Amino acid sequence: MNNWFNKNGIHLAILAAFLVICFVYFSPVLQGKAPIQDDVIQSKAMQKEIMDYKAKDGKAPLWTNQMFGGMPAYQIWAQYAYNGATYGIALMTKALPNPVGTVFLLLIGAYFLFIVLKVNPWLAAAGAIAFAFTTYNFVLIATGHSNKALAIGFFAPIIAGILLTMRGKYYLGASLTALFLALELRSNHVQMTYYLFLSILIFIGIEVYQAYKSKTLPALGKAIGFLSLAVVLAVMVNASLLWTTSEYAKETNRGKSNLTNNVGKQEGMTKDYAYGWSQGVGESFTFLISDLYGASHQRKLDDKSEVYKTLTEIGASPEQAIDLTQRMPTYWGEKSYTSGGYYFGAIVCFLFVFGLFIVRSRLKWWVLGTTVLFILLSFGKNFPLVSDLFFDYFPLYNKFRAVESILAVVGLMVPILAFLAVKEAQEGNIEQKVLVKKLTWAAGITGGFCLLVAIAPTIFFNFRTSEHADFVQQLGTMFQNNELGQKVANALIKDRTSLAQADALRSFLFILVGFGIIWAFITKKMNMQLAFGLLTLAVLIDMWQVDRRYLNNSNFESKSALANYFQPRDVDTFIMSDKDPDFRVYDQTINTFSSANASAFHKTIGGYHAAKLKRYDELIQGQFAKSVNMDVLDMLNTKYLITQDSTNWIC
After folding, report:
1. According to the model, what pLDDT value does residue 262 have?
2. Looking at residue 278, what DSSP letter applies?
3. 612 in the Ramachandran plot: left (φ > 0), alpha (ψ -120 to 50) or beta?
4. What separation in angstroms does the CA of 357 have from each of 27, 382, 421?
5. How far apart are CA 298 and CA 164, in angstroms?
6. Closest among 383, 364, 360, 372 to 406, alpha carbons compared
């Protein structure tokens, strides 16, 4: 037993450190608080009728009348009691308070992968932090995309299982792959699983090519056989979930249309809908400079901003000025809105470029191939040459929306190559002078770009959206003076520029720190333990500071307040007094067809769900998009319309 602890003590220490980091970051959970997650809150409203029925009968129904005039409950909440992976997910989500458990899963899964990659444990800890603390993961947690974050959490251990299998550890590797893939599938976010499989296809393709060259195809075939068995087992465990999802998908807005247009029936989502959240080409530089394209809607300009100064100069009171200032859009990308950009870390991006220069493993080509392809696919409508090929011809690709989500996989690829680079430098197989030279090149490329943006940002970017002229016109109308509108818009551009410059300088300084640590390690001016410890700390500080912009203590509320989030208004109480079980409600005081608030109390014609029935989705688009068709409301048995004048609810 003592030998076991001596051998694994470092791993236990690192896992304990991960746990401490999570609890420190999410310290409000120690006060009995939970995160305010909009999607989770909406889910509770969506599930209200299902859970009420379950509380009485002990079983959950497969249909709910609370949303969109009635719809299947498969993708809202359904029991899969005989699916063993259900209990694994429950253990991981309930053993630790939310969201500590999710981030801890991201950390230990990535740490396991880096250990399988034979990276030094302290370096593996840095890699795990780099992946887990990627801003996209924290944005998902903040908004309540819990299933998506869980699915991403299983990326790393699945890849680790595949690598072990490829190395000839067939039973161990295949068993781990089956286990983590079963949990991945049970997370029930098919889109994320699909993107992971795309990256694995690239990996398998490279392995087949290498095996053909080295004449080791039989061994590869055996490994693929074991992995195929692992996939079959994982799918069998989740057969009930996958079968109903597949069956239901055909009837949703991912399926074939019931209507015809000039070119026939539309199958799958339209490109406009699927490409709604496409990553801007230039916006990808946020991987290196966080607020290059502006801050999220949670970060607002303050009274030190140029906009505030301009508003006060033109006569606005301090109260009016700060109110309008905080409503100004600092984000200037082409998405309709965003909760936050994709920041992989300045040090990590610098080491990724270093890895491109020195890593000799063929894993580099898998990481590079996946990264390049997935970045191109994330562009969606901004680079249709590649995206349209996949959308039109690749199986199932047209079933998914928000194509920028594919960057979640890139968020793992970048740290893999970054810390393989440090591992390569550690092994000493490359001459010291060459390492220093390549390290300097990597720092020059990434740090030089950051420095240029900090000094002269307008060389590369204009900090205006494509609809900037319309925005200026709106401001002119608001102030009833076009000149004042232009003046405020110019001030906003200055604020956007300042945000970019501040983060560019910040990234440059972190690159300088990372360069100094690795240079001192390569030139033997710093021992390995100290260098890797400092590198881990620097990566953590870098990611922590940016993540706090999106998820911090202000995102937490007491559990009792969250449990009573939905409180009936007088009008809701009035409608609920009607004991007729068969009527529906149309609440015009909310965005009915993208909010589940009314579903907490009534059987509504609206709701909130990404997989609505196709027939109903087309009804919404055809009969409610521009105006309300009263005949359709009658057809839907709508008895109550909730509207509001300046003082009263009207029902």
Report:
1. 44
2. P
3. beta
4. 40, 29, 9
5. 42
6. 372
CA distances from 25 to 251, 257, 430, 453, 618 (A): 42, 47, 39, 30, 44
Q: At what angle do helices 407-427 and 135-143 cross, to 10 degrees?
A: 150
- The amino acid at residue 251 is E
Q: Is the dihedral of CA 329, 334, 337, 341 positive or negative?
A: negative
Asked whether 503 and 549 are in contact (CB, 8 A), the reply is no
Answer whether 500's CB lies under 8 Å from 463's CB: yes
CA 241, 245, 246, 248 torsion: positive or negative?
positive
Q: Please give the Cα distance from 569 to 644 (Å, whole number).
A: 12
State the SS3 of 301-356: CCCCCHHHHHHHHCCCCHHHHHHHHHCCCCCCCCCCCCCCCCCCCHHHHHHHHHHH
Token pair for 30: 């120690």
Segments of the chain with pLDDT less than 70: 1-6, 260-269, 296-299, 645-651
Q: Are residues 303 and 325 in contact, defined by beta-carbon separation less than 8 angstroms?
A: yes
pTM over 0.70: yes
Whether the CB-CB separation of 267 and 614 falls below 8 Å is answered with no
Which positions ≥6 away from 444 have C-beta within 8 Å?
A: none
How far apart, in whole angstroms, are the C-alpha atoms of residue 509 and residue 346?
9
C-beta of residue 234 within 8 angstroms of C-beta of residue 182: yes
